[in-house]
């Protein structure tokens, strides 16, 4: 795989011409971007409300409960000191306002309970359950193999990628990283490229023309189409 190509072009040497005069421009120019007061452009803004909400997540989630409870107490207190009959009367404007306030207060309480029960799930890193493998198609050129190994080393160094499978032209050319165990002990599960290309995941990617991101592989129906990945794989891309 060629990363670039150098064109060699011959430049004819013409004699009889005087060499160009050198200008008096300086040969070295020193520039520094770290200068106090030199940048006069717009400064990036900071969302103080978003920062405060992220730091006080529990208090913000429970705030509708306190607001709804305080509204209920306020309605009951107002009903008690206003001298109106405790029985709701449809002809009374005060009763209709109290019923509307009670509905809003109950809605706030239920909203707070929902906010407390639904929280974003944090993904914890896990160790893949499988065996280390490095299967590369034998008919690949040495330059291609070196490029693929460089890509894998880069991915494993800067990301949390643990497995890499490349299928090209109905052939699995690379299976490297952690793979699922086959029936034979300490042997990786081989990739069936033909079966993979007939599955719904591969066909969906071909139709949409975009990559498929599986955020939870264990609960996704495509788990049966990717048996070569470790059993506790969290994300597939």
From TrEMBL:
Domain of life: Eukaryota
GO biological process, one term: cytochrome b6f complex assembly
Positions in coiled-coil regions: none
Pfam family for this entry, one: CCB2_CCB4
Any one cellular-component term (Gene Ontology): chloroplast
Entry-linked PANTHER family: PROTEIN COFACTOR ASSEMBLY OF COMPLEX C SUBUNIT B CCB4, CHLOROPLASTIC (PTHR34943:SF2), PTHR34943
Protein name per UniProt: Protein COFACTOR ASSEMBLY OF COMPLEX C SUBUNIT B CCB4, chloroplastic
